[in-house]
Amino acid sequence: MNIRTVATTPFSDQKPGTSGLRKSVTTFQQPHYLENFVQSIFDSLKDCAGQTIVLGGDGRYYNREAIQVIMKMAAANGIGRILVGKSGIMSTPAASAIIRQYKAYGGIILSASHNPGGPEGDFGIKYNITSGGPAPEKVTEAIFAHSQTIDSYKILEAGDINLDKLTVTRLGEMSVEVIDPVEPYARLMESLFDFDSIRKLIKNDFKLCVDSMHAVTGPYAKDIFEKRLGASGAVLNGEPLPDFGGGHPDPNLVYAHDLVEIMFGDNAPDFGAASDGDGDRNMILGNNFFVTPSDSLAVLTANATLVPGYQDGLAGVARSMPTSEAVDRVADKLNIACYETPTGWKFFGNLLDADKATLCGEESFGTGSNHVREKDGLWAVLFWLNILAARGESVEAIVKDHWKTYGRNYYSRHDYEEVDQERATELMERLRSRLGTMTGEQFGGYEVKYADDFSYSDPVDGSVSKNQGIRIGFTDGSRIVFRLSGTGTKGATLRLYVESYEPDASKHELDTQLALKPLIDLAQEIAQIKEYTQRDQPTVIT
Ligand code: G16
Known about the structure:
The chain has 542 residues and is an alpha/beta fold. The chain folds into three domains: 3-181, Alpha-D-Glucose-1,6-Bisphosphate, Chain A, domain 3 (3-Layer(aba) Sandwich); 185-406, 3-Layer(aba) Sandwich (Alpha-D-Glucose-1,6-Bisphosphate, Chain A, domain 3), CATH 3.40.120.10; 408-541, TATA-Binding Protein (2-Layer Sandwich). Helix 4 crosses helix 6 (182-192), helix 7 crosses helix 13 and helix 10 packs parallel to helix 11.
């Protein structure tokens, strides 16, 4: 066995963001760039020698090359066994499920999620811990610290492994198992949901359309919806492609245009859903009807006991800070705890492990539960189908009934992408400097109830995460939130989150942007967004 030690020097930009290290493909293709980060992962893991690691990616451009490099580095670093997805592909939730099912030491997931792929697109890598969840901050900080002092990495000199066949083979002393992640994932779903009822619903002429956006979920969606549930032809864009067919695999109303056209057209199906590049995000649509991710979390929480896997009730729920407070109202009624965490799925891990929360969700089209430690797009779709089968009502009727019971949280996110990094930082700094004197200030009809930079104390391990977004809350229950994204790869992305609460059912039919206009204008005024971003309009509104 020939292990080569290669001399290298640090790259200063290898600090993981909201979800691992995301950069352009060309950044990752620089000599030693990927290797430095992978070696930093192995160096920061204690006792990983002889252990099992799960490996897979969303199949985007550069996935195959990176997988081969990582396997050879794992072998050189003494890893005992690698479980790698067939063709190097594994959805993020499936990777989480497999880490847990095989009791692996951890996993390496290659994905830039919803960012575009291809030679000019993005690539990403993240490490998941034994629980199956994204590494917490103390682990990502240790990886970054190693990356800043690295002077060499280890790699086995060997030929490439054939990833297209389900085989068990060796790379040096390390065992390599090429596995099919679809089957174990589908079985996990069958253990949670009432597949018989969903099958019956579909047999009774219920039409659904699931858009995999030429990304990782295609094979999973075909297996689950078409084969197991009998919805033939339900999967749209089901073949995973390295460049996602040139699309932007982000399941929202802007980028999932194929699905949106179908669901808002004549004779639309009863139910539509889309998932993202690595399969952890979801968008839910009814016939001519959009469900916001925040409302989706609230509806799933309110109806959870209709689903076999959750029929005994929920220990609690959690949402990221910018996610709307719709779920808080449900938790209140159910008398269960509701946790507010910073943006980033990693912050839900401790709550799930400690059984303080059963369901979690984010405004960024992410929903999940304690069945894995990642958000899970197809799980959310099945949860909705199970509720639809149990209630026998349309998506729209269920959401409107929900608003009637709990009131409606009008909610929207405005993204200003690729703005100048320095100016975006200045905008945030300026806001930060005003926070101390804002409480009690009057802006038109709005009086500031609180203004702060969100800080989170983890109730399980006591760790504190500061500077997680600027919140300005008003006495009428509405609020505006400002954050800089931690997943963008070009310049800065400013996110503005706007929310208001309307208890009166006669006022639930307003257009969201119109309902929120006074708050959006106020956010412009307070943060001087146009001036700082040099943009008249947001790039994307969700
Ligand atoms: C990741 C995180 C999510 C987060 C999202 C957006 O999702 O796992 O928790 O909400 O990024 O983060 P930001 O607002 O910092 O860009 P994904 O699906 O991109 O892995």
